[in-house]
Amino acid sequence: MPNAMNVGEIAQVAIIERWSWWRGALKDPSKIGTPPLVIHPGEYQVGYYRTRFKGKQWVPVGIYPDDNGVVVAFRGGKPVEDIPELFLWCCRNPISYEAYMKALEGNGFDDEPPLATIGDNSGSEDPFEAVMQELAGEKEMADEFLRAPVNTQADADKAGIWAKRLSDLAKRADNIRVVEKEPHLAASRAVDDKWRAPVGQAKDLSVALKLHVEPFLKAKKREDEERARKAAAEAAELRRKADEAARKAAAETSQKDAASQQKAEQERQELLRQAEAADKAAEVKNAQAGRTGAKVSIRVEKVGVVTDYAKAAASLVAMKHKDLIEIIDKLAQRAAKAGMPFDGMEVKEEERVV
């Protein structure tokens, strides 16, 4: 039979061994589930841990013997009967006793941002007001956090979790926006659907009528161009004759025949007047139909036709054309992500927080 000293030593060893799994997990969590720290279904290990539901805050978990030596379990300060099940959920997240007590007292964990004190509990029936109040609470705490640099892993973890929480808030707000906007979009689409047929049919008939008259107007324009060509030729001939009359007047001047000189000058002036009239007739008039405010006419437009894409692209790049530069940059970004760079670009690695 062991003496009193031996019984005490045995009890102390038993207590130490009872907490050894948790102490080992706390020291090196990476060994959880390996031979040194085996997890057996249906079993549990006393200690302090934390667990959380997806998208929720961490809550402290305590599994330990009470004053009577009976092991009890608490999650977030509330008792849990199925200890083995609770242990499976929390065993990979051991925490110190100090962290457990701090969280149990409502002070959260060092690596997790505190919850906003307003917003979810605002009681507002207006989703917009509820989101705005929640955002106000988050912003107040986040602004304070942003004033100091990140110097610890706990602060870095807190920033990451906080960023995700605000990203989720943004998504939630955007989802509410989509739901709120949908009836208006549906009403807008209904109006568009109602008027689409008459608007489209009227436009189609308008285009059809213009195309229908186009051959006539083009033929009329060709006729006017031919008339103008003949008038231009006539004007040129009249000017030639005017030049001959001028030479004749000069010859008459040399012979000192005043009457002949005057007649030649008059002939020249008449020919010039006729040439000016022919010039006016040579102006091409645009072929048109309809009346003021409702005319259909032939319009000459300048259309650029690319004959050499390589040269055209090179010219635009040399001009530093904004639109082309933006397109090339976008294509280069796509090629970099796809791992398929093309000539004239290179792939660089940049560190970014995501």
Description of the structure:
The chain is α+β, with helices and mostly antiparallel strands and 354 residues long. 60% of the residues lie in helices and 8% in strands. The protein has nine helices and six strands. The chain has helices at 4-18, 20-27, 83-90, 97-104, 127-146, 153-254, 258-281, 309-318, 322-338; strands spanning 47-51, 59-65, 71-75, 78-79, 288-291, 294-297. It has a four-stranded antiparallel sheet with strand order 1-2-3-4, with helices on both faces. The chain is elongated and about 150 Å long. The two termini are 66 Å apart.
Which keywords apply here?
single chain; 354 residues; alpha+beta; two-stranded antiparallel ribbon; 9 helices; 6 strands; 8% strand; disordered N terminus
Whole-number mean pLDDT: 84
Percent strand equals: 5-15%
Number of strands: 6
Q: Uncertain spans, ≥5 residues at pLDDT below 50?
A: 1-5
Class from secondary-structure proportions:
alpha+beta
Neighbour order of strands in the largest sheet: 1-2-3-4
Sheet having the most strands: 4 strands, antiparallel
| Helical proportion, percent range | 55-70%
- How widely separated are the two ends? 66 Å
Q: Please write the string of helix (H) and strand (E) elements.
A: HHEEEEHHHHHEEHH
Shape: elongated
- Helical run tally: 9
Radius of gyration, in Å, reads: 46 Å
